[in-house]
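Assess this one:
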Amino acid sequence: MKTLTITNQKGGVGKTTLVINLAQFATIEHKHKVAVIDLDTQGNASWTLAADVVANTGNIFFDNKIDSLNASRDLNVISSDYRLANIEKIDVEQIADNLKAIQKKLQEQNVDLFIIDTPPSMGNALVSSLLVADYVLCPIELEAFSLQGVHKMRNAINNIKTLNSDLTELGLLPSRVENRNATHRRQLHEIQQSFPQLICPYSIFNRSSIADAVSERTWIGNNKKTSARKAAHELSDVTNWILQRIELA
């Protein structure tokens, strides 16, 4: 089983959209057994993937009910819980231990890919998710200050690597990209110049069909409209690239 943390200290970069679509495409197109844990108190991934919820974070982190986790589906979601608002009061080591217990349970149930959706802040939840991850991927938005944010995020990841030497950076995934936006083109060029080995060769473009699928709780691959088919093709390419990098393709 591979554990992938999706993170960025900045909100609004399309992190949860990536988590949702990666989980769906990995399950439906690649026939992998996938588990997602939503550590973001906003619970957006949990809401969209509500039909696939098998447990919640409150039971695991505060009630110690890890043994009740039954990942019997193709896609299994551990949903966000209101008690996550108190997770910063828990020691990093304890959160990491809980995540490791989840990993053990999921591996016993033949899960191929465990995706961790993190809150947009460098708190205990995010740090713990990096401590237990095999891989980390950072969606980035091509707006002002994005380059500065990338530097901060990479510094944080490098610090974690001193504690988790197995952590591998997959890189930076441009998200919510608009080709006609001059700022986006300039920012992408700057990031490519600064991090040539880390920038993903694919992007997630800012398409209304992606937002519609998320809000409608549907898989975009089922939408036959031309715009949705184009978005699905792009998301499929991103998924293929990620799965190849983590040796699940």
Observations:
- The chain has a mean pLDDT of 92.
